[in-house]
Amino acid sequence: MKKNLSELAIWGNSPIFENQIPVGQINLPSWEYFCDSFHDLFERRYYTNHGVLTQEFEEKLCRLLGTRYALVMTNATIALSLACKGLNLPVGGKVIVPSFTFAATVQALSWAGLEPVFCDITHHSHLITPDTVAPLLDTPGVCAILGVHLWGNACDADGLTKLAKERDISIFFDAAHAIGCTHRGFSIGGFGSCEVFSFHGTKILTSTEGGCITTNDDDLAERLRNLRSSYGRRMTVPIPIAGYGRFSEAQAAFGLLSLEDFPKNCAANEKRMHLYVEGLRAVPGIRFLLPTPGERHNYQYVVLEIEEKEFGLSRDALVRILEAENVLVRRYFVPGMHRCVPYKTQFPQYMNTLPVTDALCEKVMQVPSGQRVTDGDITVICDLIRFVHTHAKKLKGALPKREEPQQ
Question: What CATH topology corresponds to 5-26+261-395?
């Protein structure tokens, strides 16, 4: 452990970790099971076009998520765009969406020919609510609400659905963070017209790349099958465009292995979250975004807010110090989508209307979790953060500013 400020790696010294501690999950199955699974794939010589492993993966996802349909796609961004087409949202229509989200959430709307109407969130939950959405419903051309379940916690799906029904507009959800989680005791996956999940390599349930759309709507499911590709359709129905979002057998093979490990990976991440909370409980200026009490959670992310006044340094300063020590923390989401290209010039009306989003973009960060992070690593990371807080006054102003990339 560092004993003096002069030992910090930010000044060019050796980092406390020899190898980088990644912020993403990177949960891998056993090599033996991986080889067995892919040997079968090679023996059958069937790689894509809705094969037997893809079908098995969809069936098991339905059981996990409690939905009638789970339609796997190349990735979650394509899935979101095809969901817009499956819902028959009109080109040029406007969709209410939080600005505090991953870029692909909003970019998927753009790919589908839709315009975002940026919505603010609440500080406590980081989520949109009926109260933050309601004032935007009178925006001319609004045709849908896209809610985002963040950090595994659900936004108020019931309240938002009620608003959508009152206005006779569509509602669907980006559930990329929320695989295996619940809202009011019900599995996330069955809310709204559909929900979209991500199986990216950094997710706790992964197919190395991929995503899926879940729905209980028979007609929507059939349109989505047709949008995805000509393979796996049950019947031909009219669609505006073919999306070519096929899921490979290799992705399905990896996803099935990840499904087997999913319960133990969630349990291991829960333990890691508790170690962080205990290790940093007494540090002023740190607030954890914890799972909603009483709900099932996947513990995919360990997320903190850093209050500069109480902690003594800004979030960005802390990030720089940790990254120099090979602790690859991540700032979420910087900046908000309303301040990113091309939206900041296309829709300048939102620049000063989302104060909570702007404030959280200065505070939120994710710390490493997942299979590669040991209990000992977490102990060292917590010790390092406490050390930085203790010496924050001396560090403040001494660190060179980091140039931010253009957004």
Answer: Aspartate Aminotransferase, domain 1 (3.90.1150)
Mean pLDDT is lowest, of 33-47, 134-148, 356-370, for 33-47
Q: What residue ranges in 99-175 does DSSP mark as E strands? A: 115-119, 142-148, 170-174
Give the H/E segment covering residue 213: strand 211-215
Bridge pairing between strands 94-98 and 69-73: unpaired
Task: Decide if 59 contacts 260 (C-beta within 8 A).
Answer: no
Q: In this predicted structure, what is the pLDDT of residue 2? A: 81
State in words which class domain 31-257 has. Answer: alpha beta
pLDDT in tens, 124-174: 999 999 999 999 999 999 999 999 999 999 999 999 999 999 999 999 999
Rounded Cα distance between 365 and 234, Å, is 44
Q: Which of 151-165, 272-286, 357-371, 392-406 has the lowest mean pLDDT?
A: 392-406
The CA-CA-CA angle for residues 158, 162, 163, to 5°, reads 120
Contacts of 63 (CB under 8 A, 6+ apart): none
Question: What is the rounded CA–CA span in Å between residue 347 and residue 117?
Answer: 9
Segments making up each domain of the chain, as ranges: 5-26+261-395, 31-257
- How many CA atoms, within 13 angstroms, populate the side-chain half-sphere of residue 257? 19
8 Å CB contact between 80 and 108: yes
Quick one: pLDDT at residue 398? 83
31-257 has the same fold as 5-26+261-395: no
Q: In this structure, what token pair is assigned to residue 78?
A: 């394509």
Axis crossing angle, helix 31-44 with helix 249-280, rounded to the nearest 10: 160
The answer to whether 147 and 157 have CB atoms below 8 angstroms apart is: yes
